[in-house]
Design a protein that fits this description.
The structure is a homodimer.
Chain A (H helix, E strand, L loop, with lengths): L4 H8 L3 H9 L6 H14 L5 H8 L4 E5 L4 H5 L2 H16 L3 E5 L2 H9 L5 E5 L6 H8 L4 E4 L9 E4 L1 H14 L5 E5 L5 H16 L7 E3 L5 H14 L6 E4 L2 H13 L9 E3 L16 E3 L2 H16 L8 E4 L2 E3 L9
Parallel strand pairs in A: 1-2, 1-3, 3-4, 4-5, 5-11, 6-7, 6-8, 8-9
Antiparallel strand pairs in A: 10-12
Helix pairs in contact in A: 1-2, 1-3, 6-13, 9-10, 11-12
Chain A binds a DNA duplex through helix 2 and helix 4.
DNA sequence: TTGTATGCGTTATCAT
DNA sequence: ATGATAACGCATACAA
């Protein structure tokens, strides 16, 4: 095929060992020699074969970015893609490739073959079979996003605290009837959000309102469920907390179509601060966290783990902060 | 380290060659033997080493998904991520990994090493240095998304035709003053959209209005530019065509803040049919194309090219269709 | 249908 | 500082 390290060595009148050392920057090779070799590499257009390198060094230099959820649930969601950005940055610095895996089929392939050095697992739910396979395997894994167990290191937003802050804010604006629009209970995130909601309500001596459980973190589903909510009962609350901006978008659309004005008739607060939140009408008040940092942190943790570190902190929680916009009205 | 093909062979009382054949499903292995081997593999938890396999077979089984744009420009954009879904599906079926590359640094690494068998190049612009590197390299490459040159196979939406259809639709609704909000001219897409706009206007004997060139395909930039447009001159057109839904979102927000009602005072039509288009207020009329199919097509083309096929069709154009929603009003 | 032996391109060990 | 050479784990051409 192409041109090998052997060819470079021959052209430079040195051994393959020297070339290898020069490339990897390992000590034990003269400055002059190094320069000569680099020059020849450029001239000949030599491109190291990563398979061979991987075989010899017993590393793949690949990190798996995997989510058992449907591709679009993750890929189409700025919440995750923003995290990916952070990950991408530290992976690059450490010479790792990012292998995306969003289908069941590929994930099986990943678990059944030596193709990655470690895995960053996203949007996992407790009934995901991949979770048990990963536990059995010896593949270093970090779970990114809401998680409750202690078996894997985990970095995630403080869902519970975030929702509590949202409720707290609503209360400070005079609201007492506060309802939660949540995702499916199978998601760790939903359970944590529910927890935060209930605790916060209790802390303010308020009765938890009915909770709407949308089967997916999706605007369309949320829209449908909220329309049903409007039709089923007329006693709407004065405010709604959503465990995701996407859920909020659906609620806003449903409300709008039924002549329910936001925030005049109904206050609403989102969760996640997706870019689009500033482009709804009215703009959406929501909870924000540093996703980029969350991404870099998780990647760094994984790399540490791959390198044998024992990760003193198994869990990293990212605080959520309020972003005040137009969707919440002060109750007189 | 782990357990190798040799160990499996020993346990099964066969040769490594037989095990190898059994795994890859190559002909020449008895049914019984195959079953025995598969069982032992499962029992022992043997995981083939992909580096070794790649080295021996001279393939990496990796496909690079690369874009010279900032990570979020691509990742945060449903337009691209929807395409990724399609790609992901056919890559899986063909046992390929998807390596994402959204930073300059990693792309250099990709070009300077044998790490992928082929590349799917996104959102490229003519001044991207990667383009010339790729031309010099022998890496099979397909360009996905708007492109004008003939040097690489290319699959993309029919930007020019799409914009023309949008203008045509506006005209059919009685509009004569139609303005284009476009992306930066450095993007192939913008140039094609401009082309479609000018042709369509001419075809209807209409004067091309002033064109707003937003320096990035971004809602915030679009918002800022349209506010300036409103302040600079008072003669707003009756309708606006945007070359991206995101651009449209910015325009809608700016209009809304200035008391310009959509569609009563100003009709607007987007481009791309991003999921969020159905959640704006009013919902956005826009141009749609089958992104999933676009993705599968490009992946299939790349695989064909990798396998030595000579791709009879160098260019694949995807038709764009109108999705009628609420942002365009009929002029009496 | 199955086994033997060699090569894939690098890294790493041990010399020098 | 540099060289010779043995792994690394698998696929495959050739034999049997």
């Amino acid at each position: 095929m192409g041109i090998r390290i052997k060819d470079v060595a021959k052209a430079a009148n040195v051994s393959t060992a020297t070339v290898s050392r020069a490339i990897s920057g390992k000590p034990g090779v003269g400055v002059e020699t190094t320069e000569k070799i680099k020059k020849i590499i450029a001239e000949m257009g030599y491109r190291p074969n990563m398979s061979a390198r991987g075989l010899a060094s017993q590393q793949t230099h690949n990190i798996g970015i995997v989510s058992p959820r449907e591709g679009n649930t993750v890929l189409g969601n700025p919440f995750f893609t923003r995290i990916f950005e952070g990950i991408s940055n530290v992976l690059d610095k450490n010479q790792y490739n990012m292998i995306s895996s969003f289908t069941y089929q590929h994930q099986q392939y990943l678990v059944e073959n030596h193709v990655v050095d470690g895995i960053l697992l996203f949007a996992v739910r407790e009934d995901d079979s991949l979770l048990v396979q990963l536990r059995e395997s010896r593949i270093p894994t970090i779970i990114v996003g809401s998680y409750e167990e202690e078996d894997f290191p985990n970095v995630c937003p403080d869902d519970s605290g975030g929702i509590a802050s949202a409720v707290q804010y609503l209360v400070s604006k005079g609201h007492k009837e506060i309802e939660l629009v949540n995702g499916p209970k199978t998601a760790f995130k939903s359970r944590l959000c529910l927890e935060g909601y209930e605790q916060a309500m209790k802390a303010h001596s308020l009765d938890p309102h009915s909770i709407i459980e949308v089967p997916e973190y999706d605007s369309v589903a949320s829209y449908n469920h909220f329309i049903q909510r409007i039709n089923d009962a007329s006693n709407l609350p004065t405010a709604i907390v959503c465990s995701s901006d996407y859920l909020a978008f659906g609620v806003m659309k449903a409300a709008n179509e039924h002549g329910i004005r936001i925030p005049e008739d109904l206050s609403i607060i989102g969760f996640g601060d997706v870019p689009f939140s500033s482009f709804t009408n009215p703009t959406l008040t929501t909870m924000h966290t540093n996703l980029l940092k969350l991404g870099t942190t998780s990647a760094q943790m994984l790399i540490s783990k791959i390198n044998g570190s024992n990760l003193r902190k198994k869990k990293r929680l990212f605080q959520m902060d309020l972003v005040e916009r137009q969707s919440v009205k002060e109750l007189k």
